[in-house]
Design a protein that fits this description.
Length: about 300
């Protein structure tokens, strides 16, 4: 069965021209090198923002974590902040992948954005990447006065595997009780390491397929890892989590887990907004000229604005 007839017509060119993605240990080096080359040549929007690399302490001896910091040239005092995690299945990717979007957020919201270059699997499996995320949250809180940001308005955000990182960090921060998170902003997040059984016949045909998720799960989690800090849907208790925004395409491999997680958040008393975009597969916003991609970008930005206005 093909789901091509369900795809938004403006997105067909993307699926016709996107190279096949077949993840494996052997393919990772070339894939990572190719992404780095593309990112070095990507055009950036002309916006009144500045960005720079930072190295923040990991809390493990003298190891540091590379991050990308983005902020308006004239940032308001006591500004909100977004702690961001890039996608890539926990095995590929870098903060620069999301730089145009993060620049727009900084410019239009007037906020500080910190995107974390967390360690990747299989070289560093769970819990290493999550501890990098927690170290970045700690650094933001402890540097709030110096950065002139409002520690009570720190949101976490991420797409795909980055959405998994953001959702799991909310659980980890709640349970450790040291640093607060005001909002979780999850774009097409991978929330459950378990694929639907039986499979949803209308999802996962394009861009990101089940076999890629299976490879990434093994690379990131290995065997017998069922921690909620690795897979948010494994958590038995979702009470006390920050308000949530979840967006996903109706044809996305992750749509079922996003629907289920949103329902559980609502039942747990967590203020939750869910957006499902018909005709859209995982990564559809790469077609940034498509009407639905532009609508999703506006919705995402508006959700952050509302969260920080609370």
């Amino acid at each position: 069965m093909t789901t091509r007839h369900l795809v938004d017509p403006e997105l067909l060119a993307l699926i016709d021209n996107f190279p096949p993605m077949n993840l494996s240990d052997e393919a990772l080096p070339a894939m990572r090198a190719g992404i780095a080359a593309l990112l070095s040549a990507q055009p950036l929007p002309d916006l009144p923002v500045q960005f720079r690399e930072l190295e923040i302490p990991s809390g493990e001896s003298d190891r540091v974590i590379r991050c990308l910091a983005i902020q308006p040239i004239s940032m308001p005092k006591n500004a909100p902040a977004i702690l961001h995690f890039h996608g890539g299945g926990h095995v590929i990717g870098a903060p620069e992948m999301s730089l145009p979007q993060l620049m727009q957020w900084a410019a239009e919201i007037g906020c500080f954005v910190l995107s974390v270059d967390y360690r990747l699997a299989p070289e560093t499996p769970f819990p290493g990447p999550m501890e990098d995320g927690y170290a970045a949250l700690r650094w933001l809180h402890e540097s709030a006065a110096e950065l002139d940001i409002d520690a009570k308005r720190i949101a976490v955000s991420g797409e795909s595997a980055g959405g998994a990182m953001a959702a799991c960090l909310c659980l980890l921060a709640r349970d450790r009780g040291e640093y607060s998170i005001a909002f979780q902003h999850l774009e097409m997040p991978r929330l459950d390491d378990r694929l639907p059984d039986p499979p949803n016949p209308t999802t996962g045909e394009f861009i990101w397929r089940a076999e890629n998720s299976l490879y990434c799960r093994q690379a990131y989690l290995g065997e017998n890892v069922t921690s909620p800090y690795a897979s948010a849907a494994r958590a038995s208790d979702l009470t006390g989590l920050p308000p949530a925004y979840i967006m996903v395409g109706a044809l996305d491999l992750f749509v079922d887990e996003c629907l289920a997680y949103a329902g559980r958040l609502i039942r747990a008393g967590v203020s939750t907004e869910l957006k499902v975009y018909p005709g859209c597969f995982h990564g559809f916003r790469m077609a940034n000229g498509a009407s639905v991609s532009q609508r999703a970008a506006r919705d995402s930005l508006d959700a952050l604005r509302r969260a920080f206005a609370r």
